[in-house]
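S.,

Sequence below, as promised.
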Amino acid sequence: MAFVPQSQRWTGKRAVLLVHGIGNSRPGDDAALLASVRAAFGSDAADVACYQLFYDHINDWFTEKVNATALLTQATTALAARINDDQIGATIAEYVGDVLWPVLSTSARGAVREAYLAQLKRITLDGEESGVPIRRQRLTIIAHSLGCFHTYEVLHHAAKYATHLLQPASHEVKFANVIFMASPVQLIRT
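The prediction came back faster than expected:
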């Protein structure tokens, strides 16, 4: 279950990280979204390194680790009996697991945070290896739904702990933009 960050060569000074929300997203699922983001950059699109953070496998691994599948299946089977849809139980279990584990479990949240931090470090390293010093990198994060929660937690953690080498003053890592869409951050934090 080792997380392997995406890596690529930069052709310009900009990078964007797209962080998905709940669901069962996998590489390739967001091709239309990625095309839209590239279109938004217009003529500069070729000079923007686009990354996507897929952490759903961590939620799935954690669900299996704590053996919660049986409990979720039992709960959703009762609901599915009232709804004429043979896929409803699996769908509900998937979404419930995606929301519950990273929010209520510190272990699952920590696993997602470490994967996210590894991806951010890889992005800045890719830029450096492509000849763009960290202080010249223009980094953007676009997060949706539960991805906003993870982004909030990761940026707070990165700013608080110098060991991540992602602090703005001492490590020169700065974000040009951090965009939250359909953010549940305030709801979850309260």
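The beta strands are 14-19, 48-53, 138-144, 175-181.

Coffee later?
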